[in-house]
Structure formats: structure tokens, C-alpha cells
From TrEMBL:
Membership in a protein family: Belongs to the FAH family.
Protein name: Fumarylacetoacetate hydrolase family protein
UniProt cross-references to Pfam families, sorted A to Z: FAA_hydrolase (PF01557)
Highest taxon, organism lineage: Bacteria
Keywords per UniProt: Hydrolase, Metal-binding
Residues covered by the Fumarylacetoacetase-like C-terminal domain: 73-276
Molecular function (Gene Ontology), one example: hydrolase activity
Signal sequence annotation: none
InterPro entries, per the entry: FAH (IPR051121), Fumarylacetoacetase-like_C (IPR011234), Fumarylacetoacetase_C_sf (IPR036663)
PANTHER family associated with the record: FUMARYLACETOACETATE HYDROLASE DOMAIN-CONTAINING PROTEIN 2A (PTHR42796:SF4), FUMARYLACETOACETATE HYDROLASE DOMAIN-CONTAINING PROTEIN 2A-RELATED (PTHR42796)
SUPFAM superfamilies to which the protein is assigned, alphabetical: FAH
Organism: Citricoccus parietis
Keyword Metal-binding carried by entry: yes
């Protein structure tokens, strides 16, 4: 099941068609995605009986963030082995957690302003929580996942590292610094949701190319460890970390330029394109 946000309304997507959730359910669900997540188990049962191909045609550019107003947004640092190696850092023994403030969320075809000449790209698998909870066991964690989507954990390194200690949350939460999309895909759609190819490109140049199997803390363990401290809520997002290839560790560093278009892709989900323009 593929769930999207078409011009502010929750839709089911298949074969280039979008079925409006509120209309198809006679108002039982939707029209916002928040209403869907608040009754996730009921919605999932209803949605599985629908045929999204009976919906209306749409263009990818019409899609917004599949979860436009998440209650909480968690980020995980150094969660890929190859990323830790490229930075010369030891693998963490506990997840390195920060937040991206929800106001940074934008959609899969966004224009993002560059506030400095040190903005970095980080393609990430993003987990969407369907059923919240506290103290979720790792063996039950996937039961709490509504779906998976693509994210960019954009980072203004000028803000992030302008003083000590670093300001991870602020440097990663400027307007538009959390593009997600193009859709949210439920876990049952994947042969193995723990092993997905993930990539980031600029034009013909490959910037990042990895697999989510390289995570230090896989999805289920992240959910267990986060929920041991924080109550997870329906619609929460977890940015699960990025593979090797980020710009800040290149020699010389490779940051995003005005006019650049970054394409982010994950197997089984699709791709999103983010265009960068000069800030004001």
C-alpha cells in the first residue's frame, strides 16, 4: 500500500492514480494524514480493501510530504558503518539521537533556500510510526510501523558547528531541511524492509550509494531504544541515518551549490528531487 499527500489530502496511490481517502471512505477517514494515523489500525484494514487504480490521475509534482505535520521527528547520527568509517569515528554503542523540528518538513519536489555555502546532503530511510507506545519490544517493533519513506537530513554545517557543543538540531532544522516523500510505503510491500538500496545523486554524479543493511542499529532496535525513553506517537518520523559519501568529510568538502538538483532514491519507494536556490 502506497499512501501519499495530494495537494493537502490523504490518498492511496497505484499505477499513476490517486484515490482520495476522505471521499472513498465517505468521510470516515481523512482528509488529512493526521486523521489517518490517529486511527491507523482501522484505516489500514479499510485501505487494504480499496482499489487505488480507481482514483484520479495525478502528476508527481502535485505530491506533498506524505506526513506533513508529524508530532515528533527523530534523527539518528552515525548509524551506518561506512559513514562512521569515512569520518574516522568509532561505531556508537548507543544511538546518537537528535531532533529535526517539524517546521523543517517539506515535500518531495521542494525548492530549498541555501542559508550558507556549507549545506550538506544526507539521504535517509525515514520510518513513520503508525501505532505509538512506550517500552516497545524490538521483536514487536515492526507492528508499530505505518510505513517507510525517503528523507534528506539536510544540514547547515555553518550553524551545526559554529560553536561547541555542536548544534545538531538547529543546524538540521532550517526551513525545508527535511524533505520527505514521494509516498509512504507499508512494510508488507517490501521483500526485506531491512535491506534496501539507498542512493543520492546530483545530475549524473553519484554522491551516496549504500544499503540499509549497513545500519548499526536497525529499524526495530531504534524503535525499541527510542521508546524505552520517549513515548512514540502516531505519525512520528524517525530519520534513521545516512550511508557514506556526505560532503563534509570529502577532501576538499563538497557542499550543495545554488541551482543544484539532488535526487534521493530508495528501493521500493521511488525517488524525490530537491532543488536548491540562493537564500535571502
Amino acid at each position: 500500500m502506497r499512501i501519499g499527500n495530494l495537494e493537502g489530502r490523504a490518498v492511496l496511490i497505484a499505477d499513476g492514480s490517486a484515490l482520495d481517502v476522505a471521499h472513498a471512505s465517505s468521510g470516515a477517514f481523512g482528509p488529512s494524514s493526521r486523521a489517518v494515523f490517529e486511527r491507523w489500525d482501522e484505516f489500514r484494514e479499510w485501505a487494504q480493501a480499496q482499489d487505488p487504480a480507481q482514483g484520479e490521475p495525478f502528476t508527481p509534482e502535485q505530491l506533498g510530504a506524505p506526513v506533513p505535520h508529524p508530532p515528533q521527528v527523530f534523527g539518528i547520527g552515525l548509524n551506518y558503518r561506512d559513514h562512521a568509517v569515512e569520518g574516522g569515528l568509532a561505531l556508537p554503542e548507543e544511538p546518537m539521537v537528535f531532533t529535526k523540528f517539524p517546521s523543517s518538513i517539506t515535500g518531495p519536489h521542494a525548492q530549498v533556500r541555501l542559508p550558507s555555502d556549507r549545506v550538506d546532503y544526507e539521504v535517509e530511510l525515514v520510518v513513520v510510526i503508525g501505532k505509538g507506545g512506550f517500552g516497545i519490544a524490538a521483536e514487536n517493533a515492526w507492528d508499530h510501523v505505518a510505513g517507510l519513506t525517503i528523507g534528506q537530513d539536510l544540514s547547515d554545517r555553518a550553524v551545526q558547528f559554529r560553536d561547541q557543543p555542536p548544534q545538531f538540531s538547529l543546524g538540521k532544522s532550517l526551513p525545508g531541511f527535511a524533505p520527505i516523500g514521494p509516498v509512504m510505503v507499508t512494510p508488507d510491500e517490501f521483500k526485506d524492509p531491512n535491506r534496501l538500496t539507498i542512493a543520492c545523486r546530483s545530475g549524473d554524479a553519484t554522491l551516496q550509494d549504500g544499503t540499509t543493511a549497513d545500519m548499526v542499529f536497525p529499524v526495530a532496535e531504534l524503535i525499541a531504544r527510542l521508546s524505552a525513553v520517549v513515548t512514540l506517537l502516531p505519525g512520528d518520523l524517525i530519520f534513521t541515518g545516512t550511508p557514506a559519501g556526505v560532503g563534509a568529510v570529502q577532501d576538499p568538502p563538497r557542499y550543495i551549490c545554488p541551482g543544484e538538483v539532488i535526487t534521493s532514491s530508495i528501493e521500493g519507494i521511488g525517488q524525490m528531487r530537491t532543488t536548491f536556490i540562493l537564500g535571502e
